[in-house]
Design a protein that fits this description.
six-stranded antiparallel sheet
Amino acid sequence: MKLQNRPEDIAALAPAYQEYYHAIREQIPAARIICDPLRRFAYGVDASLYSITPQIVVQARSIDEVSFLVQEAGRRHIAVTFRAAGTSLCGQALTDSVLILATEGWQGYHIDDDGDRITLEPGIIGALANKYLAPYQRKIGPDPASIKHAMIGGIAANNASGMCCGTSDNSYKTVLDMKLVFADGSVLDTGSAASVQSWSEQHVPITRELTAIRDEIAADPELHHLIEHKFKIKNTTGYSLNAFVDYDDPIDILKHVIIGSEGTLALIAEITYRTVVEAKYKASALVFFPSLRESCRAVHDLTRPLVAAGELLDRVSLKSIEDWDGIPEVIRTLPDGAAAILIETRADDHDTLEQRIAETKAVVGKYDILYPIEFTEDPAVYGLYWQIRAGIFPAVGGVREIGTTVIIEDVAFPRDDLAEGVMALRQSMDDHGYGAGIIYGHVLDGNVHFVITQDFETEKGKAQYQKFIEDVCDLVATNFHGSLKAEHGTGRNMAPFVELEWGKKAYALMKRIKRAFDPETTLNPDVIITTNGLVFMEHIKSMKPVHEIVDRCIECGYCQVMCPSHLLTLSPRQRTAVQREMSRLRLTGENPALLKRFEEDYAYLGDETCAVDGLCQTTCPLSINTGMFTKELRHSHMTPARLHGAEKVAENFEATSRAVRVALSGANAAHTLIGTQLMKYLAEHTHTLTGKKLPLWNPRMPKAGHVPVQPEIKGGGRPQIVYFPSCTTRMMGPAKGDYDQRHLSAVMIDLCQRAGYDVIIPENIARYCCGMPFESEGIFEVADKLAKDLEGALLKTSHDGKLPILCDMSPCTYRMQHHMDERLHIYDTVEFLHDFIIDRLPIHQIDRTIMLHMTCSSVKMGLQKKFLDIAQRCVTKVVVPDKVTCCGFSGDKGFSIPELNQSALTHLNEAIPKDCDHGYSNSRTCEIGLSAKAGFPYQSIAYLVDECSR
């Protein structure tokens, strides 16, 4: 399927949007303008409780494009909303108009002043920025819990913070300069004097209004005091009025007002941060208290830099994780009403760390605690503590009633009122029927989160939620003068309550700020500033049941970073959201034509381009494997004819494998005869003419494989291993341009023999397959039959599991480990080389730079460290690309849907050093796609070990 907008999709747009579409097509390629209903719906979902379908989605790639898009929208009085990762929680990245994505193409950065400054574009994930800074022992200041998934654009636009940055190291406090695109399309680079002068001269009304607001606040002691008071604690409700108190220069004020403005004033196209030091030494303690009140009283006396973080966990939240493996027994025996504070202290030297630990114990020890305070510097132990903290929110989401929505709210109390505020919040939750809700959060900063689940399918449920939110807002803002949004941003969720928190005078200033920057309300209307008092109750997501695998999904978007198809078609979150919408449409019957279109388009967008690699599970807080869900869908669509055909292939597997080898030999002969260019031309046309039924040849297509024979058994007390050469490596040999032209099985056998092992190959090996190709297509019956047959052969050959078994294809190993008799000890190439081979051979490190691709299966098997260790022992420099996860080859999809592989490897080549022309992995099919993209051979890591051990 070619991704393109149908004429009827354009015709279905309102006249102004049709005109806009044709206008922007002058500069934006059609492939980056999305108008089809399925993908528009998919991009209308973020991590909040809202879903709003945009009219048009545009994937912008540059400042110039955004400037153009905004100007064209302004001419037609069309609203636009900017979006990065879509991990925000308050609905600030949604629109029913034009959604502009600033993700792909927005990933430039540079580091200055020996790591003291870093300049970032908005599409960079926060954790990746910290990885860039790690060699300097520094990091960016803001540290939201979503930092491994949220992008810089959203982190800055929301003034997102987290457990440690407090109010001193957030984006507001660490921003140095920005490049901005405003509602009129103008661009300002605050780091360029020329740009500042030019922009200021052309935008006198904005700078004049900023100056006027500054002076009015300075002349109003009551308002001045209010602003200072409000920002002593975390506060992201409304605009950053503290900019008018903290700065005099209009451009300095502008820079800081933009922070936390949620795309309502400008797009942050680039930001320069002052970085902060990453402490060398850390220690953590989980301290238990008899009551929630006592825990809050104790944390009141803790301040930075004595401690870096203080995280509250109430008894209900601790109950949600007490059955996890490895959880300390004390958590299971805590009395009702108890609470815990997770404390972390940090220092640049160990003496200071020990001093801070002692001081912290003295401070907290004055309060009523259930057990002695024990700090740990063991990363494994304190890692578990922080895993508990990180797992609280998803743990609640995972056990909620199917069809309900999990909601996380975010408030802050003045430190002196923390204990009373938290107790009042707990009482309000209980009174409104949310007794199962939890309270936790960054109490060192007076900031707590509360999590509830809500059924929005009934009017009663909606009314319950509305009344609760209104009462909580009154409680926090009126009774305690706290922050309705401490770090999640205002969004549409809290927009109706900004005036309640700030009062008429301050809110009037915020409206003036909005009018000054965006007089036509082009940018993100109804976010922060709204006239719709019920906007927080509109467009709430439908969470209709789909399948038990994905029904627990909270649509946080944490899966996206691992998904090989998210730049091409859909991410796992989007697949689930679309399936939920199709389920809703089936139940209501409200739009049969739309349902039919969704079902038609999902075949390619959701099914065919899903690599079913399962890496999404590794970052999903609920461990949801959307790839397995796709396999189940494929299984449910299985026809008797297709099942019969698969059974015939399995029954004649040896003959099928032989036919593949013959075909590969023929393709290689043709390649040799007619050359690469003509071969490529003919292959592409044949692939297209056959409707992609004929696999697409590429220059890295392997030659025929080889079925190894049983090598000599030398005996003499040598240890024995069983070697199962996968059907893939038996069918596919080296490619024409590979450096080492030996078959992988020959290399494996030679390595084992030189390491002192006798190698045993199961009898009739050509008959066997683990079933992986069939499982990927949802043909479970055939896959399991093949696995069972292979299991019997391996049990026999390994003497019921007494001998270790080596498999040379990582996806096959992963399947075998999860579907075969537990007596079998099955090892992947990487683990076997690391644990059985490399220490028994003389390894001579080669002066070489290599690329290393860790396959999905390797990651799921936890082999990353061993993979890297092998490579680093063999060569002087190893590069693992930061932005490549699954290669997207997905068995045979690299031949049938090559665009998936190409999209998944979008960022491969930019990571390749100039002096690198070797790549290594542990999956033959992955190596084909990697080689084609990189322009040089990728081969099994076994070839490298073999070369370095001679």
